[in-house]
């Protein structure tokens, strides 16, 4: 996914010799943007971002590992010494994965090696891991490809590399702020991780509150709009205000903001799809509270109590399947488009705020186009019991029913307000997150 960006800084990586001072010198000069003969954390972080390496603390870890004179930066001797030592460790890891000693790693070798570490992954997932490193499209990774991929990554052994593979994909349907999902051991021990979580949670809360009216309009149109009951943007807002006043535009926002705390905590503690069952209850409550009429529920707990009494525990897991399925197109397309857009729009190692917002907007829009029908089906399934308790179809039958009744574009009901909230949501999140980081003393 990151090959295009990596070649901006590593154009001749496949031709490198492990002992070639010239190759190290070329890379050092590219990273040393202020030409002072040293590469500090900021310069290295910018270089890593340009190559698609977004791991929190990676630049600091590399500089700390190679900084022998403790001046906070790497001169060329320290830089080349670090790379040589790092390559030796990468070579050992490569050999441990190359089980048949043919000089290449294939998907079955990755699958087998991870199984021995207690991680059973599918053939498809092992191929995805392989593709992230495979430059020449052979579906095998040789030493040069392996070295290019991990040369400026701080992972030093197989366990750390497996952890990187495990955490390298953001599994989210698009409602959450992209909060750093992995922390270094130093940040965990020093307590710096909680500042990241607080900054992300506050940014998410402000962003969601600011765009809550558009979010409620999206859900309102997803559930109630059809060919026979067309709801325009202005007409929908008028209808909601007439029914419950101006404050009704923020219905469901409380539970939406409340979701941020467990989302960030679970992503930090165990960044797995296991977060979905835990958060499913909150997502169902958010949908019901967003759609509720004035006086229908007195609050979140009253809503949960009435759903439980009338529909049972299974009601809190409605929409679970389309939500999981929707993760795949959204995450894949969003990340791929973001990297491509960043490369096309900006070629500097330190893109500005407008560039990041533009790339985030483009990638999020493309991801939503691919996953929106599944998001719509999820919302319908979460809301359907409140509409008609006798008609609760499965995901596939509900999708067929929508297409039969409203045509293909019926699967995109409410996408206009959804698109309208992308730019303000990304902008607010970014600005608030940066201000919170500064306020909390996060570099």
From TrEMBL:
Q: Which residues form the EF-hand domain?
A: 19-54, 85-120, 121-156
Instruction: Name the protein family.
Output: Belongs to the mitochondrial carrier (TC 2.A.29) family.
Solcar repeat segments run 191-277, 282-344, 351-439
Its GO biological process annotations read: transmembrane transport
Q: What's a single GO CC term here?
A: mitochondrial inner membrane
Give the domain of life: Eukaryota
Keywords, comma-separated and alphabetical = Calcium, Membrane, Metal-binding, Mitochondrion, Mitochondrion inner membrane, Repeat, Transmembrane, Transmembrane helix, Transport
SUPFAM superfamilies tied to this protein: EF-hand, Mitochondrial carrier
| Gene field | LOC115572416
Q: Where in the cell is it found?
A: Mitochondrion inner membrane
Topology versus the membrane: Multi-pass membrane protein
Q: What terms describe the molecular function in GO for this protein?
A: calcium ion binding
- Protein's UniProt name: Calcium-binding mitochondrial carrier protein SCaMC-1-like
List the PROSITE patterns hit by this protein, alphabetically: EF_HAND_1, EF_HAND_2, SOLCAR
The catalytic activity, as recorded, is: Mg(2+)(out) + phosphate(in) + ATP(out) = Mg(2+)(in) + phosphate(out) + ATP(in)
Species whose genome carries this gene: Sparus aurata (Gilthead sea bream)
Tell me, in one coarse class, where this protein mainly resides: mitochondrion
């Amino acid at each position: 996914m990151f090959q295009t960006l990596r070649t901006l800084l590593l154009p001749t990586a496949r031709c490198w010799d492990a002992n070639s001072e010239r190759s190290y010198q070329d890379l050092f000069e590219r990273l040393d943007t202020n030409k002072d003969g040293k590469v500090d954390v900021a310069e290295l972080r910018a270089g890593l971002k340009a190559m698609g390496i977004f791991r929190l603390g990676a630049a600091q870890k590399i500089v700390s590992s190679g900084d022998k004179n403790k001046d906070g930066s790497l001169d060329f001797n320290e830089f080349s010494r670090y790379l040589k030592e790092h390559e030796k460790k990468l070579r050992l890891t490569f050999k441990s994965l190359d089980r048949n000693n043919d000089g290449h790693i294939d998907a079955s070798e990755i699958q087998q090696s991870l199984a021995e570490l207690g991680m059973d992954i599918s053939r498809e997932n092992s191929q995805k891991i392989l593709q992230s490193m495979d430059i020449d499209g052979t579906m095998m990774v040789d030493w040069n490809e392996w070295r290019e991929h991990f040369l400026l990554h701080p992972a030093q052994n197989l366990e750390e590399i497996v952890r990187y593979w495990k955490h390298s994909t953001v599994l989210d349907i698009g409602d959450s702020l992209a909060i750093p999902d992995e922390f270094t051991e130093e940040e965990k021990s020093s307590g710096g991780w909680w500042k990241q979580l607080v900054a992300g949670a506050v940014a998410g809360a402000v962003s969601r509150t600011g765009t809550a009216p558009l979010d409620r309009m999206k859900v309102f149109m997803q559930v109630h709009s059809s060919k026979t009951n067309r709801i325009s943007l202005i007409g929908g807002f008028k209808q909601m205000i007439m029914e419950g006043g101006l404050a009704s535009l923020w219905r469901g926002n409380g539970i939406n903001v409340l979701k941020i705390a467990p989302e960030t905590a679970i992503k930090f503690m165990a960044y797995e799809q296991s977060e979905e069952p835990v958060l499913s209850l909150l997502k169902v409550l958010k949908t019901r509270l967003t759609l509720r009429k004035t006086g229908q529920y007195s609050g979140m707990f009253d809503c949960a109590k009435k759903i439980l009494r009338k529909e049972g525990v299974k009601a809190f897991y409605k929409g679970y399947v389309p939500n999981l399925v929707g993760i795949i197109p959204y995450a894949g397309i969003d990340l791929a488009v973001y990297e491509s857009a960043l490369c096309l729009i900006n070629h500097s190692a330190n893109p500005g705020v407008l560039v990041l917002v533009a790339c985030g907007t483009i990638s999020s829009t493309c991801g939503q186009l691919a996953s929106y029908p599944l998001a719509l089906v999820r919302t319908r399934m979460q809301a359907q019991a409140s509409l008609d308790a006798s008609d609760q179809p499965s995901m596939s039958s509900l999708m067929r029913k929508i297409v039969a009744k409203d045509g293909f574009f019926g699967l995109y009901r409410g996408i206009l307000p959804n698109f309208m909230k992308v730019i303000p949501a990304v902008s607010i999140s970014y600005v608030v997150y940066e201000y919170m980081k500064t306020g909390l003393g996060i570099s």
